[in-house]
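for the recovery benchmark. tokens below, seq after
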């Protein structure tokens, strides 16, 4: 059985960003609290770590989590 993973963005009529820590350091409109982003620094990395953890579980790899993140 072949499984594919797709990343969907700009979906469900939501306008916003999940910036990573580097984006917060650099500043810019995507990190302003308001209509663009309601999240604190580190949220982008946390989302990636969670996604990797869940994908590891789906694949059946024990212990797959943030420590296996390619970042």
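predicted aa per position
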């Amino acid at each position: 059985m072949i499984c594919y993973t797709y990343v969907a963005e700009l979906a469900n009529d939501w306008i916003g960003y999940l910036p990573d820590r580097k984006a917060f350091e650099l500043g810019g409109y995507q990190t302003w609290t308001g209509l663009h982003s309601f999240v604190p620094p580190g949220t982008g990395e946390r989302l990636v770590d969670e996604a990797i953890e869940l994908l590891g579980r789906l694949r059946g790899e024990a212990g797959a989590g943030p420590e296996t993140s390619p970042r």
